[in-house]
Amino acid sequence: MKIAVYPGSFDPVTSGHLNIIRRAANIFDKLIVCVMVNAGKNPMFSLDERVSLIKRVTADIPNVEVDSSGDLLAEYAKEKGSCVIIKGLRAGSDFENEFQMAMINRKINPNLDTMFLTAEHQYMYMSSSVVKELGKYQADLSDFLPEEIIEDVKKRVSTIY
Ligand code: ADP
What we know:
- By secondary structure, the protein is of the alpha/beta class.
- It is 42% helix and 19% strand.
- The chain contains six helices and five strands; from the N terminus they run E-H-E-H-E-H-E-H-E-H-H.
- Strands 3-2-1-4-5 form a five-stranded parallel beta sheet, sandwiched between helices.
- It is globular and about 45 Å long.
- The relative contact order is 0.19.
């Protein structure tokens, strides 16, 4: 069974993330979407909330599992029997950083490959931070977020700003 891991902060999961999830789930037998603890970021949603938002928007994809982890990604993948990390590549700005992480992960776990899926053109410039920023100004988020979670995000943004 070919298992891939799609890691990220997903704060919150966007339509760009969901597009990558659907495409990767079509390629692999099982896709584990893993919310990673990132000490450098100050998330709007807790780890558990992010997991539950992803579960809601992926409920119709049977081979997707949602998890969270504070471990090193390369170790996590090994534990789960996965040899592929999925990453979404947006504009050029993602490249440098992702390239470096792919090399480091491969050094830690030589059986681990990173597979990049290019962002769909309409999601190319979309990020969780842009969504949060737009939410502050009560902008229409329907082009950016899966329908099921728009209200949750609007509510949370309004308590913060
Ligand atoms: P961000 O980089 O916006 O904080 P994450 O850490 O949640 O987001 O990203 C997880 C993964 O999803 C990364 O590989 C990132 O490049 C990818 N990704 C994020 N937004 C998009 C998008 N709009 N289209 C395609 N891939 C994306």
